[in-house]
Amino acid sequence: MSDGELIGSYIVPVHPHTVLAPEQNEGWGRLRDAYDLAAQRIKDSGADLLIIYSTTWPSIIGHQIISDPNPEWVMVDHDFHDLGSIPYSFNVDEKFAHEWNKANEKRGLKSRTISYHGFPIDVGSVVALKLLNPDNTIPAVIVSSNVYANRSETTVLAKACMDVVKATGRKAVAVTAMSLSNRMFTTHIEPKDDRIHSLKDDEWNRKILEFLGEGRLEDVGQLSRTIHQQIRVNKVVAFKPMWWLSGMNQNRNDLTGEVLAYEAIHGAGGAVVHLDPTPSGTGDKEYDEDDVEYFAGERNVLDGEAAQADFEKDNSEPHAGTTQNSGPALWDPTENKGSVNTDAAPKPVGAYPHARRVGDLLYLSGVGPRQPGTNSIPGGPIHDGNGTPLNYDIKAQTHAVIQNITRILEEAGGSIDDVLDVTSFLVDMDRDFQGYNEVWAETLGHVGPTRTTLAIRALPTPIAVEMKVIAKAPAMD
Amino acid sequence: MTKGEIVAGCLAPHPPHLVYAENPPQNEPVAEGGWEQLRWGYERLRESLAGVEYDAIVLLSPHWQTYIGTHFLGLPHFKNLSVDPVFPNLFRYHYELDIDVELSQQIHDRAAEAGLSVKMMENPDFRVDYGTITTGHMFNPEWDKPMVVISSNRSRDYYSVEVMQEMMMELGRVTREAIIASGKKVVVLASNSLSHRHFTTESEIPEDMSKEHITSHAMHLWDMRMIEYFRTGQAQRIIDEMPEFTEQAIAESDGGGLSWLLSTLDIPKYPGILHGYGTIIGTGNAIVEWPARNHKEVEE
Ligand SMILES: [Fe+2]
Q1: What's the number of domains chain A is made of?
Q2: Is the residue at A424 inside a domain?
Q3: Which of B140, B184, B181, B147 is nearest to B72 (CA)?
Q4: Do A223 and A335 fall into the same domain?
Q5: Final residue of a structural domain among A276, A298, A333
Q6: Which residues of A touch B217 (CB under 8 A)?
Q7: What are the distances in angstroms from CA A40 to CA A22, A58, B273?
Q8: Residue A386: CATH number of its domain
Q9: Which pTM value belongs to this model?
């Protein structure tokens, strides 16, 4: 199977006018024509997957991904209910939704799949899918926009999605359902009187479209915070869709862009833009923020008292207890015959690989709870840089160890179900055995490996638990 | 015609977790209880009003979010399935409710006269938001009273808390006038939480109460400050501090419900009854009743 790829991206407007009332205003009609043209291009491109990131579906518990294979209902807009109803019945790629969810987890991002009869698909997704995929011939996935997410979560969400597109050999089209300037008139207007709410909003919209027309997507992504301050009503904490779309396009700045339409919808800026991956030859790029691969910002408030204390001290930057400024130096894992290494597991503290395959068995180096990328310790470190003991959460640490083991085994092509034998090391048997044992029972206890638990004086980093694992090696292909 | 009357005004929050934990037959998911402090609070509120006669419930929900003014449900009956877009695992509720269209129209018309942007919602396919359904269920599980359901005009997002509050005070004033003119006895409900910072993760068993607590000390302090004002009849201070409270506690008063409620009650100087307080996925929630029926002399 050849590698999957993103074969096109579209930016489309969210309000229902293009579906329900294109004849009532010339601008709405032009947006509709542009929508129809985009639909034709998508069809002609041979795309086999439509991926919708919708700004009109906010979520709180991570990102949500529709996995109901056939969501059906009747959508009525909260504001524009007098324009009519939009019945929908969509064709969702359930399998892709689940794979994406797993890929998010691998990159440290919380998400969940949603499959409930009657779940209200949001207006942006309904409008986009109705018009871009009128016969439902192309399967789709829809992802929410998390209200608390910022650039790193949104970027990682896109990268995880592309992991799956590539691995499954798909020819995917990415769609952001969004407004540019989103300030609407706050009173009723006659359709003929529609225009962009202010000259300032209009000028900003045109600037954004000039960039997009030149294929400079990452530049728009990097302007997201500025755009949010300038022309976005603060319905949400950040203007995110361009981060996602740029992440889907390897943060490129040299796409081939074309603005198919730009018009007002009740004062907001609506545009249909096509971004083709063909290099345009222009577009210098320089990052003004990190290019983030893994998300490690979840602050674990449910389990970690230590993490919580940490958060309250410094809530400008939510993080679990970090060991970045203390502890041993980090090494890149060594590469030898049969070694298995992954960026999704924490870096070693010496010259050794994450795992090594010998025959049918996989031997893992001792795995702790440190997080890949940030090196933070879920549940908090056991002492600070001066050696002063800290309160920490053994259950959160144990969970993190098992998650790291899972990532290494998945890198090897296997899963947590392959674990055969575990030797666990605890630095405080009296304090921690019970919590460690509970997490074990909920997780590896179901897998059923043999186990030995030892008390030891210390581990190289300020962690309370480490596990040494022998697993069944997945069959070689 | 006799004068209408607000018999009680209540802060009646709507996290769907409460309905989920009650396991009513209308809701699909099944829970092992949870959030009892708040559910007992609702029980006390219902008991407090058990012997009180009234004709209709007027409710403002922050989850019917409108950007083009304030909207009112404008058909006599709604029936559908309400699935919470944020917590669909907890809330999939088959509802049926009646609307007092006459009273809705009267409030709508007075608001229009006062210069507010308003609209009646008359599309039969419209799904009533889960905030309305949750508060509606917790306050009146029999669903035997007609309702007036008012949307949350997001003027806070468009302008500021101050502008939002000014508009909501005006809406509260005309709501009160319309109720008095209608000759009906009415309960008014503001359906919102106090501090509104959520956990971004959910425990494996959502109703696992060992995981439930306020998200931060600062949020707790703000909630307690507001509750102190509720309990001591200092509604004016709530109005005065609304901008700070709403911004610093990321409070759900941003939807305008609390300002509107206090205005319908003419900024009560008598104490509200605290029926319950508790956190839900980290947010602070209080159930408070202002028994206006017992304080007519103070108001007239
Ligand atoms: Fe809410």
Answers
A1: 2
A2: yes
A3: B147
A4: no
A5: A276
A6: 312
A7: 18, 29, 62
A8: 3.30.1330.40
A9: 0.77
Query: Residue A386: which domain range?
Result: 317-472
Q: CA-CA distances (angstroms) from residue B19 to B23, B38, B251?
A: 7, 11, 21
- Is A286 inside any structural domain? no
Length in residues, chain A: 477
CB atoms A76 and B71 under 8 Å: no
Point out the domain boundary residue: A276, A298, A327. A276
- Residue at A287 is within a domain: no
Note the helical H segments in A214-318. Answer: 217-222, 224-231, 241-248, 305-313
Distance A204 CA to ligand 1 centre (A): 33
Place of tokens 């997080």: A371
Is residue A77 domain-shared with residue A213, that is, in the same domain?
Answer: yes
Tell me if A464 sits within 8 A of A382, measured CB to CB: yes
The domain B5-299 is classified under which CATH number: 3.40.50.720, 3.40.50.1970, 3.40.50.300, 3.40.830.10? 3.40.830.10
Question: Is A90 a domain residue?
Answer: yes
Determine contact: B157 vs chain A, CB below 8 A: yes
Q: Quick one: closest CA in B to A114, which residue? A: B88
The CA radius of gyration of chain A, in Å to the nearest whole number, is: 25
Best residue in A20, A61, A145 for a mutation probing chain B (most B CBs within 10 Å)? A61
Q: Residue ranges of the domains in chain B?
A: 5-299
Here the ipTM equals 0.93
The answer to whether residues B174 and B263 touch, using CB atoms and an 8 Å cutoff, is no
Q: Which H helix or E strand runs over A105? A: helix A94-106
Are B203 and A302 in contact (CB < 8 Å)?
yes
Element spanning B64, H or E: strand B56-66
CATH code for the domain of A52: 3.40.830.10
One-letter-per-residue 3-state SS of B7-56: EEEEECCCCCHHHHHHCCCCECCCCCCCCHHHHHHHHHHHHHCCCCCCCE
In tens digits, what is the pLDDT along chain A, a chain of 477 residues? 578 999 999 999 999 999 999 999 999 999 999 999 999 999 999 999 999 999 999 998 899 999 999 999 999 999 999 999 999 999 999 999 999 999 999 898 989 999 999 999 999 999 999 999 999 999 999 999 998 888 999 999 999 999 999 999 999 999 999 999 999 999 999 999 999 999 999 999 999 999 999 999 999 999 999 999 898 887 777 789 999 999 999 999 999 999 999 999 999 999 999 999 999 877 667 666 777 877 776 544 454 443 433 333 333 333 333 334 446 778 888 888 888 888 888 888 888 999 999 989 999 999 999 988 888 898 888 988 778 888 888 999 999 999 999 999 999 999 999 999 999 999 999 999 999 999 999 999 999 999 999 999 888 889 999 999 999 998 875
